[in-house]
Protein: Integral membrane protein
Amino acid sequence: MTTRLTVVIAALSILVAITGNVYPGGLLGHLIFRPSSVLAGELWQVVTYALVVPLPSGGAIFSFLISLWFLYSIGSQVEAVLGPRRFLGFYLGASALGALATIPFAYLFGFASAPYTGLWVALGALTILFAHHFARQPVYLMFVLPVQGRQLTLVAFGILALFAIVDGPARMLPAFFSMVAALAFANGLFRPRRAWLRFRAWRIERELKRRTRRFSVIEGEKKGDDRTNVARPKRSDDGSGPWLH
Structure:
């Protein structure tokens, strides 16, 4: 599925570039995500914006190739955990949730007509899920800097914050919401039964910690003390030992 998805994104992006359909008009204008266009009826944009990348310049082509490599690299490992169908559902679902959550903020702060492309939105969500399932696997950022998988979550949100400072927070909202959705998915919050079991386990652990605060260690009994037949913990050589009361 990862291979097919990579091929589809590459083919669709190249097709749009060859036909010259760059936004705001043409085919690309109907595939990328605009909050105003979605509310006008082009609902498919919340999904298709993660399947196409505009290629107006040579620099964009290099970034595009790096994105495809990144998708194939971590996507294949995430797919091995989720399976093909759940992987595709996660890729498209996280992108769609990021877009839908952006719409009210777009109208609230006045950028409803801003265009968004979503390949890096989906890659951010995949990075969070990869970091959750491969927490101890080493990853080389920029092919040089080694980090563990568990650190990728902080790195991903840190990079997102830097882009928000440079390009403005409005541009980063879909990526931010998709990454938060990936965190929720990784922790089972999209599975009501698993979320309920996690909540119950947290409640039980909290109750046990509260009860253990009443325990204290008292001096053990001496040898020859037969006042009780309760099993005693292993004593030290002098015949005494701690008791948990």
